[in-house]
Target: D-glycerate dehydrogenase
Amino acid sequence: MKPSIFITRKLPDTVIEPLNSEFEVEMWDKEDVPVPRDMLLEKANGASALITMLSDKVDTELMEQAPSLKVVANLAVGYDNIDLEAANQKEVVICNTPDVLTDTTADLTFALLMTSARRIVEADRYIKEGQWKSWSPLLLAGADIHHKTIGIVGMGSIGEAVARRAKGFDMNILYHNRSRKPEAEEKLGAVYVKLDELLAQSDFVVVLAPLTEETEGLFQKEQFKAMKKSAFFINAARGAIVNEEALIEALNTGEIAGAGLDVFVNEPIDSNHPLLSLDNVVALPHIASSSTETRLAMMNLCVQNIIAVLKGDKPKTQVK
Ligand code: GLV
Ligand code: GLV
Model:
């Protein structure tokens, strides 16, 4: 019997083609609806490998029902949806998709920063709603980006890629990270600072840290109070790093100037959520790595990782 693989979302046939000759491949048949939990558990039972989305919880309950499971390839660089300890105990290899998405994610993060600062979404809405009556001296005047200070919280490879973009805009680069990054300091002139100093000095606070016990709820009322009133808060990491109530209050009371958000505590966020009613919020549906090229590269990497593990080889990108 061929080992079986379950894929929790519909992926293009060309992506799964390399699996077909040696494995039994089954795929949830919807692109934009997650597989129901009970079906995921049922399919995991008997599967040797899973390709999962960041919206699927891969926990003890799942692994206990999946005695033949050898590898889970998560279609994301983040893996906070996966219980690594449980995976270790069950000797299930966990893979993610770093590197292939770094520049694409950095592009979107910088675009979100620029969109927020220069009020691009508001301006688009303004013209399409027929509000444009004349050129006016301060019409939709935003904030400058060049020569301002960016503060990057989480200086992994995506953080560094954002810093490279910031350098091209002659920005001052501050960063905060668990460990120092001497190479980024030397090459990009990035300056390591404590978080409170980063918050006090930055015109743009950009969060790119993974969601961990240390970063969960890192941004509370106090952190937004510590920021400049003219500052923008950009989050392309995970929603749960931020207390959204505190963010809403900071945006409403003018503690900060605006926010660009690609991620939310609950995804998909309810369209009636108060964050979405604010003009100084630009909201995106978790699309930072979503260029066609990069999403296909991420899918192909998941497929290669699964083939490697099931053949007894070392996968390209195993989570430590
Ligand atoms: C997306 O958020 C990812 O972790 O790849
Ligand atoms: C976050 O995902 C990072 O690589 O900085």
Remarks:
- Residues 77, 154, 156-159, 208, 210 surround glyoxylic acid (ligand 2) (CB under 6 Å).
- The mean pLDDT is 97.
- The two ends are 31 Å apart (CA to CA).
